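A favour, since you know our structure tokens better than I do. Go ahead and set the record down below.
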Amino acid sequence: MALSLICPAQAELDLVRNGKPQADIVIAEAPARAVKLAAMELQEYIFKISGAALPVVIAPGKDIPAHIYVGKSAHTDQLKITGDGLKFGAFRMVSGGDYLVLTGHDKDYKPPEFAPRDSKDIERWDKRTGEKWVNPIGSWMHTYSSAAGISDFDERGSLNAVYEFLRGLGVRWYMPGGLGEIVPEQKTIALTKVDREVHPDFPYRDLGNYSPAFWFGTRDAILYHLRIGLDASPACVGGDWPHGLINVHGRKETKEAHPEYYALYGGKRSIGVSGAGSPCLSSRGLFESTVKYARAVFDIYPDKPTVGIMPQDGYVDLCQCDLCKGKDTPARGRSGNMSDYVWGFVNRVAIEVYKTHPDRKLINAAYGSYLLPPEKIDKFSPNVMVVVPMARDPLTRTNIMELRKGYMEKVSPGNIISGGHYLHSRPGCGFDGLPIYFPRLIADDLRSLKGVSQGEFIELSQGAGPGIGDMHAPAFNHLNVYVTARYYWDADQDIDVMLNEYYEKFYGPAAKEMKAFTEYSEVNWPFMRTQLEPVDKVLQLLDKARKAAGDTVYGKRIDLVRDYVRPMNELRSRLSVDRTAVPRQFTWAVNESRITIDGRLDEPEWGWKSYALNLSELETGRGVFCGTSFRVLWGEGAIYFGIRCTDFDMKGLNITTTNNDDAALLKGDYIEVLLETQGHSCYQIALNPAGAVFDADLKGGTNAGWSSSARVAVHKGENFWSAEMRIPVGDAIEGGVDPMTSVEGRRPSNLYPWFINVCRQRSRSRETERSAWSPAGEKSFHVPVKFGELFVR
């Protein structure tokens, strides 16, 4: 049901009159946690609005004219007003002659049996199932916040009713914390006539398992989450769906007992050492174990609506066993190569589970190599639920909408949720400081999903330091988050009305200028990474807004936005330099298990999934006496380089050190890889014929304390030496690693590429020959503006 604000009408009674309380707040003697919080929030904000402190009581005062009943109590029972039957945060607001009832379904959440807390819980789980599975009810189910006195999984309809009542009085929570709220002054608050029942358009409103994290987020962050109406209801969608298949095959005991569950690559089972391994989806044993696992979970947890059986991240290559041959569809490209293979497995499992648990769902996401709908399945089993991508990027929206249509034709009604990320603000992801706003696409997308999707799971950038678990960069992130959360409740509302109100309330005298800044950013952010003009324009608009705001609270809000976009000044400097003359090359993603780092470059991937790129003389671009070629591949969290150095004097190789991290390496023969990722310029990884490595982070100087953690090997032939390098990459979207021990960057794409160079120094007593893939035109290797462009297809 669409939300509307409470319209004041002529009332006989007031809740507050001339700053004096005329009502009390009545709750049950032993209320649910959400009701306690609702009463506190109502009391606090009525005081902020009017200066009146309404008492919170368990029985209506005899000498008090009006009463606000929050949640279920004996008094609401007498009025025969109940929230029974309301689900997923829905609520009722009903007024009478001297009362207002704000109620919904409220229930304290208790973690289910076996929710892991220690090793004994794992032992009890194993005993209960008789198998070595991972319990899908993980530690994330412990969601109680001592800071806010509530669990994320508490049923909280009455709290939502209180927040809607306060919105009707003009309160807004645009951003976490006091700076983010709008509280009007109003000395008199009337008891208005109302009789409404409000249901969200999307029951599953899980905007981030990253932020705010209930178990360690701050009170401000958690209250913001509640105030804007988010709710990761476990009664709608089980939280274990992302990569849930690893619960079946991820444990050490399963790897040891059932190697046949795992994919065969290069004659070896991909069991994995620290990870879960890659499954063989043709394995009969894995299939039977997955069916048994799903049934057991549903039996042990009768309230659990779904079980996830999505494969792990990086699942891109077909198993090479005889059972799997021919089950891929390479003609469909990397987004559909595994679609029939993966979805075929999911559907077979679902058919079996449907026989015993027809009211439960199995979840898999359209993702990676199985993004496209399968071609060999006309209709999924009625219990298959599909997670489809959001359509909130103007560059991919048309394709995503077509993809979504393909899945909707295959699933039963109601078996869709959408998923994605709002991680643009995460440092190192290649969008650092860019004002990536998309409120209208949010509105359009959620409007198109109403009645189709159960809701959404969105990953949101998490903060660091004292605010870890809170929203990262709230000055930027809050607008996309706020619009998303409010459209979950009413997907038919007018986005322009919402945004105009936002600009006026949040930016005051700078409303016009911040509207221009945001709307320009919304249209032009896809071009800011590579074009100077939109960067200059957006910075000018923001400066104009800051001047209009003056020394006010509105100026403080804009200052936070200016702090966020500060990296754009560095981006502007980089874009000011012409890069049109550098080479451009693409490469492919491969399965890492097929590459052995031995320096020989004899794996097939080096031949059919990469191109040999030649080095030229560093300053002139001419040919050199001893040629060098290299190939590059993208792996699962790493970039690979294979380099072959011709040398007609192998006995005279100039090896100046055999020790890692010794700068003396740079005085002899060596090769050097230079990497500029989307958010970092740049890294240096040098390797000599002895296999010694010298690496440094060159951003803002030379930090030789940084380590690439590169795995390298060198091979020496009759008239050449060759090297292989595996350089780990911390993907800021999927979850990076320590910035002091790896390259920070995300997969290079056509729009957001890397800039790289591969260079060689061949040093002899009389001469030094220096070459590069992209000649610098000067004597130095370290000229980032001359690096060549690299992206992964």
